[in-house]
Amino acid sequence: MTDSVYSAEKERKMELEEFKKEKYVESDRPPFSIQQQQDPWLVMCDGDVRQKQTFFSVSQNQYYIRRISELKEKIIRANADEWLVLQSIYSTDCYLWNLISNEKIQLPPLPECTILECLLSAPPNDPECHVLFLIEETETIPDDDDENSNDDTNDENDDTDDENDEDVNSPTFYFCKPNYNEEFHKQDGHSIFENGSGGIWTVFKKKFYVSTFQTRRLLCLEPDNDSGTITITPMFNESPDVRKYLDMGRFANFILQSCDDTLLYVHMFFNGKNHGIPYDFLVFRFDFARKRWIETESIGEIAIFISYYTRTGTICFTRGTNLNKESIYFIEGRYLYVYNSLLLLFCQF
Question: KIB1-4 beta-propeller domain spans which residues (predicted)?
Answer without folding.
Answer: 55-340
